[in-house]
Amino acid sequence: TTGGADEVYLKIKSSDKRIISASIGAMEAINYQLNFENILFGIFTGVFFGLFFYNLFLYFSLNDKTYLIYVAYILLVWLGQSSILGFTQELIWPNWIWMNLRSNVLFSVLGSMVALWFVQSFLRTKVYLPKLNTGIQVIYVVYIIILTGTVFGFLTAMYAVFLVTQAIVIPYVFMMSVFILQKGFKPARYFLIAWSVFMAGILIFVSTQMGLMPFSPTYFYMMP
Known about the structure:
Blueprint: H1 27-62, H2 65-85, H3 87-91, H4 97-123, H5 125-128, H6 130-151, H7 155-182, H8 187-209, H9 217-220
Helix pairs in contact: 1-2, 2-4, 4-6, 4-7, 6-7, 7-8
């Protein structure tokens, strides 16, 4: 009300640990913000699908399975990010409640599993760091447990376990890539340059979701 103050109470039920931001504004301002987010998502999707088909072409041209792994990774990351941002729930399966509740965790976990597979293939971890490569096998088991628990409806607990696991995986993979670079495998340098930015984005997102960093739209969109 003009010249006064009102109290607004919201009752929100969530299947996972999630920070909810809200704002009140004129319809014109809200529509502008939504249209801006839609444009950014369109650019994001265009870049991902360009990478998808480019790497698919490289796979058929070079017959190197690493490119095929990367193609699967790109698709799963797009599905995971789109689910976190709410676009898959709106555009792909709007009436599939079961998937709406689970999609952000399911595709994020599957994408993380394929990412580790890519790390093993690209960095040749079995050759250069066989002992640390065993740690990746343990992480796979944790991811499978998270997937199973999510499918059977333990959504809040599995999402919390996933966040903690990601907080461990990121420095673990970074450390492996540094060690492999020190062993003289030069392609590890490209991995470090490219993936450090993405891993930083994941770490910031996970930190905000765990309450370790203050929530802000900038941090929320840091990962995509």
